[in-house]
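Lab manual, section 2.4: Encoding a predicted structure.

Procedure: take the sequence of the chain (244 residues), apply the prediction step described in section 2.3, and record the output as C-alpha cells. A sample record is shown.
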Amino acid sequence: MQKTIPGCFFQKMYASLTGISMERDHMKDLRRYLVLKYIQYLVLSSSNAISTFLGLLGSLYTIIILQSAKVSSKSTVVLISSLAKADILVSVSIVSEMVVRTFEVSISSTAFTSALLQNLLTANAHVSCLLLSCVAVEAYLITFFPTDSRHLRTVKNARLTSRIIWILVTAECALFQTDVLLKASSTSAPTRSPCVLLFHFSSTAAALLRSLSYFLGILLRIANVYIYYKIFFSMSNRSTLKTK
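Recorded output:
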C-alpha cells in the first residue's frame, strides 16, 4: 500500500478547492457576497448570530477566491477584499471571548477588555458600512458615468480610500477605548486633577462621535437605497428599450 505524505495531502486538498473555485463564476459569487453584506450591515438593524456566521463564511470564501489568477485586479475587487478582511476583527472578538469563557481566564480589568472586544465589532461594522457605500458609489458611476469616471475608478484610488477608512475608524475606536480607560482612572483621582479634566473632554468627544456615527449610519442607509433604486430603474428602462 502506498503511503500518503501529510504535506502532499494538504497540497492536493488545497489544489482541489482552488480548482473548484476557478470553475465557478467569480463575479457572481462576489455579487452574492455583497448582497449578503448589504443585508447584514445596511438592512438589518443589528447583526445576529446567524447573519454574523454567514458573513464570516462568506468573507472566508471571498478571501479564497480572490487569490485566484482569474479574478482581475479592479477597484471594486480591492474594496471587496478590504471588506472581507474586516471580518477578521469579528473573528478575533469571538475567539477572545470564547477563550476567556472556556478557560476562565482571569482579567484584571474586565470593563477595559469588554470595551475592547466591543470596539472591534464597532470597527468592523463601521468599516463595512463605509466600504459598501463606496462600492455603491462606484456602481452608480459605472452605470451613469462610465467614461467620465474612469480616472476616478482606479485601483490606486480604491486602495487609498480603503486606507483612509481604516485610519478614521481606528482613530474613532481608539477614542472610545481611551474614554473607557479614563473613566476607570478618574474614579480614584482627585476632583480637580488633570486626569478628571481629560476624562470630561474625552467623554464629551466620544459622545459626540457616537451621535455622529449614528446619524451617518442612517444617511448611508438612505444613500445606498437611493443609489440602487436609480441603478435598478435605469437598467430596467434599458432592457425595456431593447425589447421594443
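Check your result against the sample. The helical segments are 6-23, 26-43, 49-65, 75-85, 87-102, 110-144, 155-186, 194-243.
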